[in-house]
Amino acid sequence: MTAVRFTAPDTPSWVDRLSGDDWHNFARLQNFLRSQPGAGDAQVNSLASESLRVLRHLPDPTSPAFQARGLVVGYVQSGKTANYTAVAARAADAGYRLVIVLSGIHESLRAQTQRRLNRELTGHEDGGVDPGKWGQQWVTLTSPTDDFDKDEDPRQLQGRAPCLVVAKKLVPILQGIDTWVSKVQKHLTDTPVLVIDDEADQASINIPRKGNPTVSGKTDPTEQRSAPSRTNALIRKILNRLPKAAYIGYTATPFANILISRDDHHPEYGRDLFPRDFVLQLPRPARYTGTEELFGPSARDRDVICKVPADDVDLLRKRRRRRNDEEVRLGPAKLPDSLVDATLAFCLVGAVRRARGQAGKPHTMLVHVSALKDDQNRIKTALEAHIAYLRSKHSTSGGLTAILREVWARISPGIKKAPSDSEVFREAVQVMNSLELVLMNSDTDDEFDYENRPDRHIIAIGGNRLSRGLTLQGLTISYFLRTTAACDTLLQMARWYGYRIDYEDLIRIWTTEGIARWFAELALVEESLRDSIIALERAGKRPSEMAIRLRAHSELFLTNKSKSANAVESKGSWSGTHPQTVLLPLHEPERLRTNHELTVQLLSRAGPGASGHGGLIFRDMAAGSIVEFLRSYRLHPDVRAFDGGGIAEWIDQRSAADELTNWSVFLPTNGDSENTAELSGHRVRLTARRKINDNGIGILIDPRHEGVDLPEGPGAYRQGNKYDSQAMRGSRPATNGLLIIYPLDPVPLGLPKTAGPVIAIALSLPRTSDLDANWIVNRSFSSEDE
User: Fold this and answer.
1) Which of 199, 351, 368, 644 is exposed most, by the fewest CB atoms within 10 A?
2) H helix intervals, 248-399
3) pTM of the model
4) Full 3-state SS string of 216-268
5) Residue 134 burial (C-beta neighbours within 10 Å; 0-12, 13-18, 19+)
6) Can you give the C-alpha Rg of the chain in angstroms?
7) β-strand 498-499 against 288-289: which pairing, if any?
8) In this predicted model, what pLDDT tens digit does every residue of 712-738 receive, in sequence order?
């Protein structure tokens, strides 16, 4: 069968034979998107180039036979559906005749996906794309109300028109598809099939169960191992039945997919779903609100995170009973203050959106406390009662304005162009009177119905149904207490990511200090993952030829234990990374004082420094000075991701091998705070970072600072309004390291101005010759493969 090779954008490809007239399906999609309100040329052009990039990595549909496995990685709530819709359109234009979209495990998501593809791809939805000429019209084998039926007429595959299936990844549905494929195989002999697996890290991953043996490609065939899980086995079985099949997984959290064994092969089910042919990282969309905006430097002007006390968590998640064993219901007096405040904040930011001309557009609040339906039902009942209480309070005494004013004082900092307080309160009461509670769990038929009723102010209460794929339009306020042991699960539950155009400043998240700390570190885990994927593509290698590195989280597993049997953790190297202190000892004055003194001592030995890029650059410093500084720097006792002593020891080892021998130190002196301080004779404007919990600040480093000591400076690595920090580290000679010392303003960190600057540090480290470590890697890669 044809093997798919890496295809660089400027490399000749089978796709090049297609001319402008061949892009029938994609052209009408493009025209439709351009006609939509708010659509920008840049966004549509990016979709065009990125969908073409994915298509170039697929097999030529005219090839005699092929099996391909690939993965496309996006951002949570960032337009992955738009990309695979465009890829499906281009694939149909290129000659793929059957497109099967596996759309999650919940019917609400499948139906949402079907409606969108009917509108943007097939033309089977009113107001969508032009259905096209006879003979080019799509045949849809599923509908918004009907999943796949194994009795579909196989004659539909005999025409010229492409066919579409949108199905859930549930065993009965997959069994039906498998039965149908086996029945119509004679019609599929020369039919190129594209299988798109949405949320590819959910359900599709093999979670082995005891039973039948499977055979691993690099082990003794007699070795007895557990059989594939049923969903995984069925997807592989369907692919194995198809003579010409290309499989693309889509996800924002690909940890489990990257850890699939690259060698596993079963005589009946075929090769596993490891993306051996390609892994592509989609670019970060313009105006996307992600981890950086909510937990990094971009959030410094507003308090995005609102702390939920432990007592409130216990009240909402535990069933409290009377002596006679009757449940105590959460009446108005018992609803936690934090949830009341979040609800009032939702009304207030809804008022701001109305004042901005966004009345009539979807507006949603998320309440995600527990996976238990009993908890969700209790919370909905309690919220309904409390909202009725608040409404009656306003109607009888006008007292609602007073409590709105109190919450407004806490959330208004950072809100841009806010109307007058009187207008905010007046409009907030209108929002309060129109609130609707929607319970999203398997016991209800509730839906958001954004298309038919876009003007609703919805409080969405639920658990697993809200955790993946389903879009919460107009989400501003999130009340999130759901805990988990895995990074991918936590990221997927964060529905506040996405496009919040013209109301980015209104987002607020009520959560616990611990969950906020998890998300702060997740920013670094995400960033390192994307860097590693980009490095793979730049190296021109397939994922089967070069391991993708995954940075370990200090408190969470990257993915469920059952999905990470191939994970191997190794420690010792910091090659090509940018470690930074995101947890600071803010409540330990002695540690802060020590770090300040260490900085003064280091700078006093560094000379006058040269001005540039908003700070002072001190060059040609010896490795020993940096090692001494890192060993003495006092960290917060809970820090795991930044090991000062371990990094110092590693630098010592590398300098002995003639690497990391020459160091620069950068001191930003033109920060974004109004406050200034003096450090070793240098007057500096301090850098502002806000707390997201008692000691955490989210992302510390400003990406452009990683290039301040490079010959062409950071400007050479600028792409639009972003800086490619991974490319900066890739350009850094193995001999040259960079230490960045951030003097932080103590006031946004909750300390008095007299405390002086809080010293936080980051490093930009080149790729060195020692083996990559400090990462999670796939066990099926040996050291020589890397």
Assistant:
1) 644
2) 255-258, 291-295, 310-317, 337-355, 373-397
3) 0.76
4) ECCCCCCCCCCECCHHHHHHHHHHHHCCEEEEEEEECCCHHHHCCCCCEEECC
5) exposed
6) 28
7) antiparallel
8) 999 999 987 788 888 899 899 999 999
